[in-house]
Amino acid sequence: MAKLATATKAGFGVGQIAGQLFRDVPSLLLLFYLTTVMGIAPAVAGSAIFLPKVIFGAGFDLAVGIGSDRMAARFPRRGWLIAGGAIAPVAMLAVFAVPDGSPTLQVIWVFVTFSLYMATFSTFSVPYLAQFAEMSPDPAERTELMAWKHGFTGVGVLLSSAAAPALVGYLGGDRGAYLVTSGLVGLVCLACLVTAWRYAARIPDRVSTGTPLALRDLPKAFGDRNFMVLCLSAVIMTVASGISYASFAFFIKFVMNRSDAFVQVGILSAIMAFAVMAGSPIWVKVAARIGKKNTYVLAACGHGFATLAWALLGQAPIWVSYGLAAVMAMFNAGWGLIVLSLLADAISDARERWGENRAGVYSAIWSMIEKAGIALGGTLIVGGLLSASGFDAGAAQQGLAQSASATAGIILSYAVLPGLAKLVAAALIWRCVGNQRQGMPSAA
């Protein structure tokens, strides 16, 4: 089978920008917005986001995953990108368009609109991920495809974690600023998904991808040991990422004591984004030399230790934080790329061993883990930790400092817990995954 054209790989990879924006913008900004702008208590706001993200998000992911497998012969997976893209701008804007009124009304609004948001996210994210395992039978080329995907993750991080907060700050940081920003983000998502759909049409559909799983056959997925190990590592990493993302703005404002918090969020996120983009092709070469397992362990440990170091250096000069951000992101590019490559390998292996098309189901389960993990870490856990440590939303609205215990809770959330979690994930992969060497793919 001929290798895919570079332009096709890059064009399809653009779709990852939409996925990253949908994942990161609410994770980074929504809890901060609901607490410091709307004045909702952190635990209440976190619960209003967490429940639809886990309950409805899991159901939507599974339905789309099974449906896209069963409909693959009649309705190509790329068609789901257009369906999700059409709804994306409305879903993104609605989440932040919280009306004036009683706290109960506001919580209901967040619950309902975030449910719509999760349905939209599932519609395009699950089929998009599944397509990576079906584009090529060559493991080396699949790793290269994931490198393109992960490279565009850096672009998504740049937009979601640097450009979006900077725009909010530039527009004044009030409700109107969040509404304008979320509306523009939604339109960017639409453009990226249309681009991915257009380039996906250039990729030949696999003639035979195996028999699709029915809902009653779902337990078969949990009998695949390799896939389940990857899932467990993803649970650990996504919960940690959710905790860290949601605590980021709090850490900069109340631990680093930066009055220009949104400016620094933008600068630090831009540094991280460029490091991720630069690191992706490097980690492809590292994996070819030392194996996928060793690469994952190296990158996850590096990320964990750099995160823990930031817990001790929150009061250091700002250039120290810039350096730590670059180091963390470089290591993040490594384990993030490799775990997705291992996922694509697991999907291909299931097709070869059992003759079953599990791409949509495996991608749905993976997506469920990512979204639920981000929600658990970024809303419920962070909201609970901040409330338990004494974070005062009223004081935050007035621009006042937080107590020592609240500051300690923020440090625990942003650096300590996520740093330890990454070391645990590295140990799990080291113990349970066989080492895989891979031929050198062409540069991504």
Automatic annotation (TrEMBL):
Coiled coil: none
Keyword rRNA processing on entry: no
Lineage: Bacteria, Pseudomonadati, Pseudomonadota, Alphaproteobacteria, Sphingomonadales
Pfam families: MFS_2 (PF13347)
Spans through the membrane: 30-51, 80-99, 105-130, 151-171, 177-197, 227-255, 261-284, 296-313, 319-343, 364-386, 406-430
Presence of keyword Amino-acid biosynthesis: no
UniProt keyword annotations, A-Z: Membrane, Transmembrane, Transmembrane helix
PANTHER family linked to this entry: MAJOR FACILITATOR SUPERFAMILY (MFS) PROFILE DOMAIN-CONTAINING PROTEIN (PTHR11328:SF24), MAJOR FACILITATOR SUPERFAMILY DOMAIN-CONTAINING PROTEIN (PTHR11328)
Cited InterPro entries: MFS_2 (IPR039672), MFS_trans_sf (IPR036259)
Family: Belongs to the sodium:galactoside symporter (TC 2.A.2) family.
Name under which the protein is recorded: MFS transporter
